[in-house]
Amino acid sequence: MRNNPNRLGAQSDHPLQGSAIDRGRPLQFRLDGRLISGFVGDTVLSAVLASGIGSAGKRGGVPLALSARHAPAITFAALLRDPQRTLPMERTPATEGAEYLTLGRRQKSGALARLLWLGSESLGLDLNQADPLPRPWLGMQGEPGPQIDLVVVGGGVAGMAAALAAARHGLRVVLIEATPRLGGNARLFGTQEGEETPDHNIARLIESIGKADAITVLTGAEVFGLRPGVVRLHQVEMRDGTPAGRVIDIRAPRIVLATGALERLPVFPGNRLPGVVGTLEAFELAHHYGVWAGLSALFATSSSPAYRLAMLAEDAGIAVPRIIDSRPRPQSRFIEFSKAYGITLAPGTIAASAAPAPKRQGLMARPQLAMDGFSRPEPSLMVDRLITCGGWQPDLTLWHMAGGESGWNATYARLEPLSGPPGIALAGSAAGWFTSRACLASGDDAVDALLGRDRHPVDDLLIDPLYETPDGAAPIGDLPEDGGQPAFLDSGRHYLERPRPVRSRWPGWLPFAPRPTGWSLADTPQPLAIADIAAGVQLGAIPAASAGIVAQERVAMVGIAGENNGEPRRSTTPLPLPPPYLVGRYQGAELWVVVPDEKRVLEPGTLIHANPDATDPLRAIGVVVRSINGTAVALVTGTTGQTVSAREPGRATGIRLLAPYRDGMDLAAALGGGAGAP
Q1: Radius of gyration of the chain from Cα atoms?
Q2: Among the residues of 87-144, which ranges form H helices?
Q3: pLDDT tens-digit series, residues 150-205
Q4: N or C: which end of the chain has fewer CB within 10 A?
Q5: How far apart are CA 642 and CA 190, in angstroms?
Q6: What are the backbone angles phi and psi of residue 433, rounded to the nearest 5°?
C-alpha cells in the first residue's frame, strides 16, 4: 500500500509475509488526527509502524524507538476523560474508522507544532516526564474472573502443554496470552534434529486446546499483578466490533508461569534510536504483520537465531551487508547456512555505537573488533536498520512479584529461578529450559509438581558446543560521551542509562585528583526490570551474589485485594504486607508511614539508607514497599521521627519515619490532615 512504506510485499508461503493480516481487506483509522492505513488483522501498533512512524518521542533531546515494549496507551477521542477506557496500542486490534488519541504529554503544543508532527516519523511525546507512558489500568481494581482450578500465564508451547496436561487431569484451566494469538516465539528458534517443526507443534497444540472444553483461552490479556492464589490481568476484547479493555482478578490455587524469555539489549550509545530493534521483535513484526522498515539491515548478535532472521530478510529482498557476532568463534547450523547465502560474517565483533545518519536517513553503526583481549574500531556502516540480540533472559518478573527467588548464573550471564512460593510453578524458557522438546515436557512437569504427582526428568538435550556455540553475554559497547547518544540498559518503559564518565580538569595521577564515584543501581528511585538488573551485574553496578535479592526487592509491585466474603470490593493494600520474601531482610525492620522532606512521590522499590552518603544496596536499612493514595509505606529499621535517606538519580532525599503502619489505618490522620504529605 502507498501509505504503508514499511510493509513487505506479499510472498506466498514466506515466513515474513504477514500471516495475521488479510491484505484483501484494507482499513483506515486516525491516531492523534493522523490517518493510518492498515489491514484487518493488524494491531494499532503494527499499522502505525507500517505507516512509517518509528519513534515514540524524545528524551533528553534524543528520539527513542516505538516498539511493543515501548508504546503509549491510547483512548478513543470521545472518551479522553475516562481512564478506564484506555487501551494498549500493542494489544488493540486495528478497526475501520476508529479515532484514537495517545496518552502522554507532547513536547510542543499549538497549531504549528501539530502540523509539524503530523507529517513526522514520531508520535511527538515528551518522554522526559515522570510517567511518560501512563497505563491507567495498573491502578484499577479487577472484576471477578471465572472459578477455576489452574491458571497458565503464557500461551507458547510450554504454556499450551501445561494447559492440556491440567485438563487431562480434570482441572478447569484458564490460559492467558498477552499477544493476540497463541504460539509464542518458538518459530524464530527453529528445531533440532528429530524435533517437530515449530509450526507443526503450535498447530497441533492449538487444535487440541480448541477441543478441550475445560480450557478457557484469554488472548490480548497481559498479567501485571500476581501473588499466590490470584492473578490480575488487563484484557483487550472486541465488544460489538469495538475494542474494549477490562481488568480481571482470577483466583486459583495453582498457577503455572510460562512467560518465556526476554531479549537482552546490548549496551552501547544509541541502542534505542529509531531503527534499532531486537531480533525477536523484528521477526514477530515481519512474520505476523509483514512490517519491516528500510531496505538494508546490519545484524549485531551474541545468539545464533539472529542468523536465521538474516537469511529470511535476504529472501524478502532486504540487503544484509554483514552479521557481527560478539562470540569469537561461533559455530551453528544457522551460521553455515548464512555462509551459503553469501552474507559477510564478522565474529568477535560488537556494535560499539550507533547514531543517526546524515540527513536522518537511517543509522551510522560502528562495529568494533573485540576478541581475545584485542580491540580495534572498524569502519562505520550506514544502514536503514540495526538488528540486535544480546541473548535471552528468563522472564521472571511475575515470579519475583509472587515471592519467587532467583540467582545469577555466570555461565549463561542471566538470572535463573530458584525456590518459589507454594502453588506456583515455572515452565518453558522462564524455567530456564532451552530446547523445544524440553519446553513441551516442562509444561507437563509443572502440572505434576503442583498436583503432587510423580515427576519425570525433563531432558534438555543440547547440541554439542563444538557444533552449536552457546549464547554469549550481552555485548557492552563504548562508554557514552558528553553530548552524545545515551546507552540504555533495557528497551522497555524504564530509562536507566549507563553513566557517562565525568571529566576532571586534573590529571589522574595527581594525589588530590578526584576519583570517579562508584555507580550503583540503588540510586534509581523506580522499580527495576529484570533486564536492568542483568545489565547492572555485567556493568558492575550490582554484585552478582546479590542480583536475586535486588530483583525481588525492586520489582514493581501491584496491589491485589484479598477475599472479602461477598462484600463489595474496595481499594485495599496488597496482601500480605510486607511481602514474604522481605521478611527478615532488614534486621529489626518494621512497617512505617514515611514522608519525604520535599514534595514528591516515593516509588515502591526505592531503597532506604541510614544517611545520604550510603549507596551500597547490601547496606540499605529498608525499602519502600507500597504507595497508598500517594502515601508511602516502607519496611525500614528506625524510630518515630527519625530522618533517613532515599536514593534517587544523582542525589539523596531525606524522608521521615512518621508512624508505625497498621493495616486499615487512617493515613490522612497519620499525616496530620495532610501535613508533610507529598
Answers
A1: 25
A2: 111-118
A3: 999 999 999 999 999 999 999 999 999 999 999 999 999 877 666 678 889 999 99
A4: N
A5: 58
A6: -75, 150
User: All 3 cell numbers of residue 419?
Assistant: 525456590
- d(Cα 154, Cα 184) in Å, to the nearest integer? 8
Residue with cell 476523560: 81
Summarize pLDDT for 274-303 with one digit per residue, the tens: 999 999 999 999 999 999 999 999 999 999
Cell of 562: 484479598
H/E stretch holding 151: strand 150-153
Exposure b/e, 59-86, CB count within 10 A at least 16 = b: beebbbbbbbbbbbbbbbeeeeeebebb
Helix 198-211 vs helix 157-168: angle between axes, to the nearest 10 degrees?
Answer: 30
The string of pLDDT tens digits covering residues 571-627 is 333 446 777 667 777 888 999 999 988 776 677 778 889 988 887 777 889 888 887
CB 631 within 8 A of CB 677: yes
pLDDT tens string 391-416: 999 999 999 999 999 999 999 999 99
Q: Produce one character per residue of 18-32: b if its CB has 16 or more CB atoms within 10 Å, e if not.
A: bbbbeeeebbebebb
CA nearest to 426, candidates 402, 408, 410? 402
What is the sign, positive or negative, of the torsion defined by CA atoms of 541, 546, 550, 553?
A: negative
Predicted TM-score (pTM) of the model is: 0.83
CB 184 within 8 A of CB 157: yes
Asked if 155 and 183 touch (Cβ cutoff 8 Å), the reply is yes
E strand or H helix that includes residue 337: helix 333-341
Residues 421 and 547: their CA atoms lie apart, in Å, by 19
Burial letters 258-289, b for 16+ CB under 10 A, else e: bbbbbbbbbbbbbbbbbbbbbbbbbbbbbbbb
The share of the chain scoring above pLDDT 70, in percent, equals: 87
Q: Per DSSP, what are the bridge partners of residue 325?
A: 301, 347
Hey, what's the torsion of the CAs at 313, 318, 322, 325, to 10 degrees?
Answer: -30
Give CA–CA dist 440/485, Å, rounded.
42
Given 3-state DSSP classes, what are the helix, strand and coil percentages for the chain, each rounded to the nearest 5? 20, 30, 50
CB atoms within 10 A of CB 112: 8
CA distance 564 to 632: 24
Give whole-number Cα distances, 487 to 237, 257, 271, 335, 532, in Å.
37, 31, 6, 29, 12
Report residue 501 as a C-alpha cell: 564518565
Q: Which residues contact 536 (CB under 8 A, 6 or more apart)?
A: 489, 521, 528, 542, 547, 550
Burial class of residue 212 in the structure, from the number of CB atoms within 10 Å of its CB (0-12 exposed, 13-18 middle, 19+ buried): middle
